[in-house]
Write a structure and sequence with these properties.
Elements (H helix, E strand, L loop, with lengths): L1 H6 L2 H24 L7 H22 L4 H29 L13 H7 L2 H10 L10 E2 L2 E2 H21 L2
Antiparallel strand pairs: 1-2
Helix pairs in contact: 2-3, 2-7, 3-4, 3-6, 4-7
């Protein structure tokens, strides 16, 4: 088994990471457009982080890298995953707040993008809102932010394993 692992190119491993991100993003789109689970602001930020991770995985797969290149790409992916862990953790924290401590619901994302400066939009997205506390679709007893947290940890660890591969 170890011999097979050593013979697999890092490019294929990065491509597998990009494919996993594609599956996760496709699932999010399915939940939104088929099951009508509208994403909250923090869900949108988490989607952007997954997209960034997928793009880095894909660039790493296309770009023939050496050992240093693998370290650079894997570090970028792991750092992006850490950002995702932070956002997902905040989302989970908001979901577990008592009702009287929830942040107020703000305007929708479309309205903010049209009328607010981008810095303020970003601040509002990262702060979260009362709608971020709603728990929707679950899988194996875990809701979406918890599943996203697992996804970030797994993909970040996958990137580190690729960097450590000899």
């Amino acid at each position: 088994m170890l011999k097979i692992w050593r013979n697999i190119s890092s490019r294929w491993l990065y491509l597998a990471g990009a494919f996993i991100v594609l599956i996760l993003f496709g699932t999010a789109l399915y939940l939104q457009y088929v099951l009508r689970e509208d994403p909250c602001p923090l869900c949108m930020v988490q989607r952007l982080i997954f997209i960034a991770m997928g793009v880095i995985f894909l660039i790493a797969a296309v770009h023939k890298t050496g050992r240093i290149g693998n370290w650079i790409y894997s570090s970028l992916i792991a750092l992006t995953a850490l950002g995702g862990v932070a956002v997902a953790s905040r989302h989970i924290w908001i979901q577990h707040l008592p009702k009287d401590q929830l942040p107020a619901c703000g305007p929708g994302l479309d309205f903010m993008l049209k009328h607010f400066p981008m810095a303020e939009v970003w601040q509002e997205l990262m702060h979260g809102s009362g709608e971020c506390a709603a728990k929707g679709w679950t899988f194996l007893g875990l809701d979406l932010p918890e599943l996203a947290l697992i996804g970030y940890v797994v993909l970040g660890a996958w990137a580190v394993v690729i960097a450590l591969k000899k």
